[in-house]
Amino acid sequence: MLLKLSLTGIKGRLRDYIVLFSGLVVASGIFYMFEAIATNKNFLENNSLVSSAVIIFHLGTVLLSIITFVYIVYANSFLMTMRQKDYAMFMMLGAKGRKIAQLIFIETFVVGVSATVVGIVLGIGLSSVVQQLLINQLAIKITHFTAISSSATVFTLLFFTAIFLLAAIVNAMTIVKKPILSLLKASATPLPANRKPLTLVLEVIAGIIFLAIGYFMMTQVMKLAFLALIVALITIILGTYFMFHSILIFVLDLLKRRDRIALKNLNNFTLAQLSFRIQDYTRILSMVAMLFALALGAITVGLGFHNEIMKMTEATTSYDLLLNNGQNFDASELQSIKPTIDVAYQQKEDANTIYYDREQFDQTPLLVKEFGEGRTIKKVQYTGERLAKDVTASDQLRSLELPDQRTKNHQFVSSEEFAALPGETTQLRLITVADFAKDKDVLKDLANENFRKNPTLDKEMGRMEQKSLVYELYNALFSGFEFMGFFLGIAFLTMLASCLMFKILSGAKSDIQRYSMLEKIGTRRKLLIQSIQKEIGILFLVPGLLGVTHVLFGLQMFKALLSEPYSNLWVPFLIFFVLYFIYYILTIWIYTGIVMKQKN
Questions:
Q1: Are residues 20 and 79 in contact, defined by beta-carbon separation less than 8 angstroms?
Q2: pLDDT of residue 139
Q3: From residue 421, how far is each of 354, 357, 415, 416 by CA, in Å?
Q4: Rounded to an integer, what is the distance from CA 170 to the centroid of its chain?
Q5: Keywords assigned by UniProt (predicted)?
Q6: Average pLDDT of the chain?
Q7: What is the pTM for the complete model shown?
């Protein structure tokens, strides 16, 4: 009977539960996906390149676990607020507190576990998609990967079941302990909105100061390190709170005093609505702003790491291909690429010395990339004369040689002297192609062939001189950050938008009478809908703008990791705002359906 009553209650609040359900499905799906990749032992053991990004996925799981817990607690409290009247009516009809507690427990638990099961199915699909993305992004052959992971399934079920079990117990105990009269009047009890003008002004000043300190500290992370992070975190949280607790209220009061704005259409009513409930929204708006910054920041930084792959590769290597003993490679092996630079420096060696033809370096200087001031990179040309005199320059050449050659002295002699030297002539061959991205696979095959033809080369050490292998290394690492940032950003967005939606919808019942009265006195329905759009728009827009501001200053902290943290910002911002706007439209649709009766 209780199960049937619970399912009836869920059906009666189906739109509200669908919002919660969708958020939980996405959260559990992404959670499963992270675990499916990070706990697949056969996959990791047989794909050493991918295993370098495992810690990234575990970190994503920890962050997602924390925010999921906060989201579930918040979302369930909103749903319980909307169901309080129903539970009070059951109590008035004679239902015992124990039965009400069981009813609440079943509703919470059924929704949570159902969402988790659907989320795992979604996660299996996401894992398959991410597998293909990893294959395409990393450009490698991935083996022993399966989207269906028993360990990830069990861990996801246990984690979400534990959270919903705790949430169900807390919800049941909270509702049962409240007096019936409090439950009946919970949604109709107004909160005090008026404060002393002096207190409001002082809070406005404090909010501005806190935000200014926080933003300044973000720009000083390179100098002050951990101290700047701690101070920035504390002051930005405080500044965000005061932004909604005082600054927004102060701005609304100023707008209400401007007759040109307040007296236009229903603006005065809309501003009054916002002023009346804004204090009750302070905590949720503050949380949404911070989560917005985290979500947008995760996507922005994730895509920023993607942009770093080629930049780091270019900074590490000067040539696209290095061939030791290049004379062992014939033209047929290189026919698929069209080099723009193909230089072969001739070598002769004895027990203690390796000889080079100085005039070859004069004709085609050795190219080396060096770091300049800040993160700038410059190309330096080393002629034979400079290599002969400059030990540092000579060491740059030494890094391209075979291991047994690096211990020998360098001698740069004339062409005549080089020709007169005894011994076999070998080649140090350096190649650059017109389009690295196009020829990357061929260059990788040639680089591996170079290791096969020169057994003394250590592949782990020597890969840093082969551009295709350097690219592969950075791609494996940064792609993990990219995927984690993208999926965490989507999960955070789903949760923050759902939380804000719940808070707005939880007050919809008390607004029915206000909109009904306005319609009865002749207010056009179009103006009422516009008022709803403006009110909800401000509640979505303000935390969004503050979150964007947090991100714009917060990217300063990543200058040590990203060469251009502000590059192509429009891409993540566009993705994020499209999804955020969809939630805004959905909230308006549900809210309007509650407060506005449909015309017959």
A1: yes
A2: 55
A3: 11, 11, 10, 9
A4: 31
A5: Cell membrane, Membrane, Transmembrane, Transmembrane helix, Transport
A6: 79
A7: 0.72
φ/ψ (deg, to 5) at 480: -60, -45
Contact yes or no for 565/555 (Cβ under 8 A) = yes
From 282, 274, 289, 215, select the one nearest 242 (Cα to Cα): 282
pLDDT of residue 600: 45
Residue 174 CA to residue 172 CA, distance in Å, equals 6
One-letter amino acid for residue 17 of the chain? Y
Can you tell me the mean pLDDT for 245-271?
Answer: 82
Q: What are phi and psi of 430, to 5 degrees?
A: -125, 130
Q: What is the pLDDT of residue 305?
A: 79
Other C-beta atoms closer than 10 Å to the C-beta of 103 total: 23
Question: Is it the case that residue 178 has pLDDT exceeding 70?
Answer: no
Give the contacts of 465 (CB within 8 A, at least 6 positions apart). 317, 322, 399, 400
Amino acid identity, position 22: S
Residue 381 DSSP code: E
Amino acid at 398: R
**Percent of the chain with pLDDT strictly greater than 70:** 78
**CA nearest to 42, candidates 153, 163, 143:** 143
Question: CA end-to-end span of the chain, whole Å?
Answer: 36
Which tokens hold the place of 379? 């190309």
- H helices of 409-524, in order, are 415-420, 436-453, 459-462, 467-506, 508-520
DSSP string covering 504-537, please?
A: HHHTHHHHHHHHHHHHHTT--HHHHHHHHHHHHH
pLDDT tens profile 375-428:
667 788 888 888 888 877 788 888 888 888 888 888 888 889 888 888 889 888
Q: Is the pLDDT of residue 127 over 70?
A: yes
Residue keyed to tokens 């049941």:
172
Distance of CA 53 to the CA centre of its chain: 15
Give the pLDDT mean for 426-433.
90
For residue 222, the model assigns a pLDDT of: 75
The Cα 24–Cα 71 span in angstroms is 9
3-state secondary structure 116-183: HHHHHHHHHHHHHHHHHHHHHHHCCCCCCCCCCCHHHHHHHHHHHHHHHHHHHHHHHHHHHHCCHHHH
Q: Rounded to an integer, what distance in angstroms lies between the CA atom of residue 93 and that of residue 124? A: 46
For residues 579, 581, 587 and 592, what is the CA-based torsion angle, rounded to 10 degrees? -150
Residues 282-307 have pLDDT tens digits of: 888 888 888 888 888 888 887 787 77
Q: What are the helix (H) ranges across 185-337?
A: 197-218, 221-224, 226-242, 248-257, 259-262, 267-277, 282-316
Out of 14-23, 42-51, 188-197, 565-574, give the one with best mean pLDDT.
Answer: 565-574
Residues pairing with 344 in the sheet: 429
How high is the pLDDT of residue 210? 92
Largest CA distance in the chain: 111
User: Cα-atom radius of gyration of the chain, to the nearest Å?
Assistant: 32
d(CA 517, CA 418): 101
CA distance 337 to 511: 70
**588 φ/ψ angles, rounded to the nearest 5 degrees:** -60, -45
Q: Judge whether 344 and 429 are in contact, CB under 8 Å.
A: yes
pLDDT mean over 53-63? 66
**Average pLDDT value for residue range 578-592:** 87
* DSSP code for 245: I
Q: Are 540 and 579 in contact (CB under 8 A)?
A: no
Number of neighbours of residue 266 by Cβ within 10 angstroms: 19
